[in-house]
Amino acid sequence: MVGGMPMPGLTERVVKAIFLTIICGAVVFPFIGVISTSLAPAEEVTKAGGFVLFPTHGIDFTAYRSILSGGTVTQALLISGFVTAVGTAIALVLTCTLGWALSRRGTIGNRPLLLLVLISLLFNPGLIPSYLVVQQFGLLDSLWAVIVPVSVSAFNVIVVRAYFAGLPAEIIDAARIDGASEWKLFRHIGLPLSKAVIAVIGLFYGVGYWNSFFNALLYLNDSSKWPLQLVLRTYVVNGVELGGQDLGMAGEAVPPQTSIQMAILMISIVPVLCVYPFIQRHFAKGVLTGAVKG
After folding, report:
1. What string of H, E and C letters represents the secondary structure of 39-102?
2. Rounded Cα distance, 233 and 213, in Å
3. Cα separation, 98 vs 87, whole angstroms
């Protein structure tokens, strides 16, 4: 304090702290409620009317055991894992190879191909043309319809290309003098020096595949091929009830629907939350450096 008056900016900092605390509470409390409801005993969930903020009668994993007992949710979880793993691997291979080709100025067709990539950023193909293309390739009602159409992102290609273009030219020239081919330059110099941007782009693709439901809704008519996010939309957002047969618990007592829904929601969130901390340190180096060097 100066002369009995508050320090300049103190009131502003207090207001900011209160405002941020309110925002954090608005985000954290619903998340705590989701976790608590999924772990609360059935009697407590029923008594609370479907939503428990803090379980007071212990923790019960029945909801998780029910959805992971081999029914619809278990199958959807395996499908989402397959789509995410295979889709991310294919997307990284295509994006990195295309980004490397576009970063080499002597590549044949470099400029026209780069122009096509940039145009795709400005113009969306539209829903009907995309559906017709998938249909003509015979991918309808196949998991490849969820993987292939989004396997290359123009934005990610531009970021990777910018990062590759910013690699030290001296190292590449020295490798060329030693007789390294373009493929060896890509494998032994480009990829090892670009782990940060590859990790970030891989996270973007992985989260995109994991959270994608619209393509599955559009292209998959067989419910046995639905990924987890489409099951989440059907049984949580739309409120369709999961019976014992759907859960692989025929003849057994089914937990409250709210507990099942919150458990499905947690299972759909946890994998992404587990991956983010390991990739977070690469964000500034990977994305920002790639964008600036472009």
Report:
1. HCCHHHHHHHCCCCCCCCCCCCCHHHHHHCCCCHHHHHHHHHHHHHHHHHHHHHHHHHHHHHHH
2. 8
3. 16
Q: Where do the domains of the chain lie, and which CATH numbers do they carry?
A: 10-60 (no CATH), 66-293 (1.10.3720.10)
Q: How many angstroms separate the CA atoms of 27 and 17, rounded?
A: 15
What mean pLDDT is predicted for residues 59-71? 83
Percentage of the chain exceeding pLDDT 70:
88
Residue 5 phi, psi (nearest 5): -105, 145
The average confidence (pLDDT) of the chain is 83
Residue 5's DSSP bridge partners are: 2
Residue matched to tokens 């979880």: 77
Higher confidence at residue 250 or residue 45?
Answer: 45
In whole angstroms, what is the distance from residue 156 CA to residue 202 CA? Answer: 10
Q: d(Cα 103, Cα 254) in Å, to the nearest integer?
A: 57
Cα distances (angstroms) measured from residue 231 to each of 161, 183, 246? 36, 42, 11
pTM, full prediction: 0.82
Is pLDDT of 294 > 50? no
pLDDT at position 4: 52
Q: How many CA atoms lie within 13 A of 287 on its CB side?
A: 13
DSSP secondary structure letter of residue 2? B
Do the beta carbons of residue 71 and residue 247 sit within 8 Å? yes
